[in-house]
Design a protein that fits this description.
Layout (H helix, E strand, L loop, with lengths): L7 E6 L11 H13 L6 E6 L11 H10 L14 H10 L9 E7 L3 H10 L5 H4 L2 E4 L18 H13 L25 H7 L7 H13 L13 H12 L13 H12 L11 H5 L9 H10 L3 H19 L1 H4 L3 H12 L9 H16 L1 H4 L9
Parallel strand pairs: 1-2, 2-3, 3-4
Helix pairs in contact: 2-3, 8-10, 10-15, 15-16
Length: 387
């Protein structure tokens, strides 16, 4: 899923590491690189679930040395190859992969042991202050809710039970986790409400104001910005802009002097829709795109899109038209249709229950890439009144 700043989240669960003698370490290294390669060109976040790392499945010193040699500067910074096996596995596996340290914006260490904290303090002088600020220790799963969309995380049952045991031991010492009752949306609400709600409150306008304003601004000033949609922005600034929109107040993006703010706002708007723009009903159909013969995939995309409700179709067409324009400037902004698909895939469609698996990312991103690349062909056969 995504964190509260729209950055992709990668989780690493120690309890799922098999016993060392059963593990094909070469394949593990390839899998780690394959997984990270899909995200690390963009800003991203790592959640490290430490519970379950034991002597039985702890990576050996020999394997960690191999990992260190395998990952070039794109992945690993030599300063993080430390004398402790546990700390090496935390740093090397979870976030120190060669070119990727730069775009790692946050590392959440969940259920840290005292040993990890002690080691961190010992080696803290060797690690840059800037990088150290990215690391946050979280003693309980509930603490994750402040930073990312907790319900999107695929948390192992073993970790959940461990968390419950910890809370049970602290019973009486910890305040109960309170979930505030949902508030009714404001008449001017833009985030977290349906397209229909926004339309009804905006005199029947099909394109939500926040989309129209961010797209318009980015068309004027962002089409040739390198890495557009790949960078994050200040969490507090994003919250402030969302608040202004929800209160019906005007937003002047020139005041923020950061082209990535309207880009993040656009992604955030899509991600906070109660139902994805491509609708839950399309999810399984989209997953089947990889089983369709290559020459027929554009036709299949068109068929799926034709089944969308009119309002969703218009908003999607408006968005994809803009993303197609961005891709046409990829010589400057480096954002090809494939790059944009990696950013927007899970912002346009997600399952109604649970989270999209890693295997689902391939068809979801492929479908989005086809929409962007073949925009004219796919959207040329349906006209909606009032579009």
């Amino acid at each position: 899923g995504d964190d509260n700043s729209g950055r992709k989240v990668i989780t690493f669960s120690c309890c799922r590491m098999p016993p060392s003698h059963q593990l094909n370490h070469t394949r593990l290294l390839e899998y780690l690189k394959y997984t990270l390669d899909q995200y690390v060109e963009n800003d991203y976040t790592v959640v490290y679930f430490h519970y379950g790392l034991k002597s039985l499945n702890k990576p050996s010193l020999k394997w960690l040395q191999t990992a260190y040699k395998e990952f070039d500067r794109k992945y690993v910074s030599k300063i993080f190859v430390l004398p402790s096996i546990i700390f090496k596995s935390l740093l090397t596996i979870s976030f120190s992969f060669p070119r990727y340290k730069k775009n790692l914006k946050a590392l959440y260490v969940v259920h840290p042991t005292n040993f990890i904290k002690i080691l961190w303090n010992i080696f803290k002088p060797l690690i840059s202050h800037k990088f150290g600020k990215k690391i946050t220790y979280l003693n309980y799963l509930s603490d994750l809710r402040e930073h990312l969309k907790y319900d999107q995380l695929n948390i192992p049952q073993e970790v959940i039970r461990h968390d419950e045991n910890l809370r049970g031991k602290q019973k009486g010492k910890l305040p109960p986790v309170k979930v505030p009752p949902p508030r009714p949306p404001l008449p001017t609400q833009q985030f977290g409400v349906s397209l229909q709600y926004i339309k009804d409150k905006n005199k029947g306008e099909l394109i939500p104001p926040v989309m129209k304003e961010t797209v318009s601004y980015l068309k004027r000033k962002g089409l040739q910005v390198e890495g557009l949609f790949r960078r994050s922005a200040s969490i507090q600034t994003i919250k402030d802009v969302q608040k202004l929109y929800n209160q019906g107040k005007s937003v002047n993006f020139d005041d923020y002097h950061d082209i990535h703010i309207p880009a993040v706002i656009l992604k955030t708007f899509l991600r906070e829709l109660p139902q994805p723009l491509l609708t839950f009903e399309c999810y399984d159909h989209i997953l089947g795109i990889t089983s369709v013969e290559s020459s027929l995939r554009v036709t299949r995309c068109k068929q799926i899109i034709q089944g969308l409700p009119e309002h969703n179709y218009v908003v999607l067409k408006y968005l994809i038209c803009f993303l197609h324009m961005v891709s046409q400037e990829s010589i400057y902004n480096r954002m090809t249709a494939s790059s944009l698909a990696c950013v927007f895939g899970l912002n346009l469609i997600w399952p109604s229950k649970g989270t999209a698996s890693l295997s689902a990312l391939v068809p979801l991103n492929l479908f989005t890439e086809l929409l962007i690349d073949f925009y004219t062909n796919i959207f040329n056969s349906r006209t909606v009144p009032g579009e």
